[in-house]
User: What shape does this take?
Amino acid sequence: MAQFYSIQEAADFLQVDYKVVYRLVREGKIPSTRVGWQYRMTQEDLNTYLNVERARHRADVTGSDERARAARANGAGKS
Assistant: This one.
């Protein structure tokens, strides 16, 4: 059976303030289940979020490298 984490427990795991996790849950970036007035998420939910963010960050870094190469190839920055 999966272990469920509260907002505070997830924040402790991610080493961020609980308000950050609450915002990510409300925005749908961290999948969660609502139990009464409280949100709960599994370790798998947190790992999925981290993996998606890692992939997005890598794509951003790779994309900006490619844009810089294209700009240099097109002569951007030359007078």
Remarks:
- The two ends are 64 Å apart (CA to CA).
- The chain has three helices and three strands.
- Strands lie at 4-5, 33-35, 38-42.
